[in-house]
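Hi R.,

Here's the chain you asked about this morning:
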Amino acid sequence: MSQAETVVPRWRKSSRCDNDLCVEVAWRDGEVAVRDNSRPEIHLTFDRASWHDLVREIRGSQLDG
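And here is the predicted structure, written out as C-alpha cells:
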C-alpha cells in the first residue's frame, strides 16, 4: 500500500450546515472529495478544475433545479 493510500482525508463541513445535515469536502492529491455527512461511506470525487467549475456555476445560479 502506498503512502497516498494511507492518508486519511480531512473532511470540512459546509458553512451552510443545517441541523447536522451537512455537505463535507476534503482536498487531497489534486482532487476534491464531496460527501453527505449522514452517509460518509459514499462520496463523489472531482478533479480540481471540475470542482471549481461546479462551485462557480452554483454561485452563479446556472444550474437547473
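One quick note: The mean pLDDT is 83.

Cheers,
M.
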